[in-house]
Design a protein that fits this description.
Strand 1, helix 2 and strand 2 form a beta-alpha-beta unit. This protein has a single domain, classed as Vaccinia Virus protein VP39 (Rossmann fold, 3-Layer(aba) Sandwich), CATH 3.40.50.150. It is built from 6 helices and 11 strands. About 30% of the residues are buried. It has about 200 residues and is an alpha/beta fold. Bound molecules: S-adenosylmethionine.
Length: about 200
């Protein structure tokens, strides 16, 4: 997605953020969302991704900045990044003010999704927020049979990358199960043609 069409997650959430200690982006990818928070009041910005290769290069590319030692020092001080599978990371309890997990959970079964939501919830401070976005079963790209093979009713596998499996939820019923257990900030529940996003407040 180009910078101009991406929505800024900090702008989207800032009105509802009340605690600003540690933010963690689980599956941070190329850092787009972390960069939205670069100059926010969060004391610590963390990011985890099992495919983290040259994050400083991604950062410079997104911001269109030249490599300088000062910039690199700023980068490593501001962004605490780890190349790790989040399932092996110790999230601990009640420490995160904001957890972002965007475009990640559709790679996991529905039971796993709910287990990870619980893991994240337990790791949040009181008053903290959990932002989730994942693809749903009406996503035309993930269900395009030219590129994807349907292996179960709601599970699709990429024909050219067999490790790339999408477990696509029905947005309404998944939201209903989430609402049974957690308190959602309703103005952040968005279902578009590809994905569903919602915010849980602890
Ligand atoms: C589609 S990308 C989304 C990146 C970013 N969150 C965004 O919205 O732009 C999914 C990311 O999740 C990461 N990911 C998926 N499963 C993961 C896991 N178990 N542990 C760590 N990272 C994971 C992938 O490496 C990839 O960078």
């Amino acid at each position: 997605m180009s910078a101009s069409t991406r929505s800024n997650l900090f702008d989207q959430l800032s009105q509802d953020i009340t605690v600003k200690d540690i933010l963690i982006d689980v599956g941070c990818g190329r850092l787009h969302d972390l960069i939205d928070f670069e100059y926010s009041e969060f004391k610590t910005l963390k990011g985890l991704d099992r495919n983290l290769y040259q994050p400083f290069r991604d950062y410079r590319r997104i911001k269109n900045l030249e490599h300088t030692p000062e910039l690199h020092r700023h980068f490593i001080k501001r962004f605490l990044l780890r190349k790790i599978d989040f399932r092996e990371y110790d999230f601990g309890s009640e420490q995160f003010s904001l957890i972002i997990c965007k475009h990640v959970l559709h790679f996991y079964s529905d039971n796993e999704k709910l287990a990870y939501l619980e893991l994240f919830y337990n790791a949040m401070q009181s008053g903290g927020l959990l932002f989730i976005k994942m693809n749903h079963n009406k996503n035309v790209d993930n269900t395009d049979l030219q590129h994807m093979e349907q292996i179960e009713r709601t599970v699709y596998r990429n024909k050219t990358n067999l490790d790339d499996v999408r477990y696509l939820i029905d947005a309404d019923s998944f939201l209903n199960s989430v609402k049974e257990k957690y308190s959602l900030l309703e103005n952040h529940t968005i279902v578009d043609d590809k994905a569903v996003s919602f915010v849980i407040r602890k």
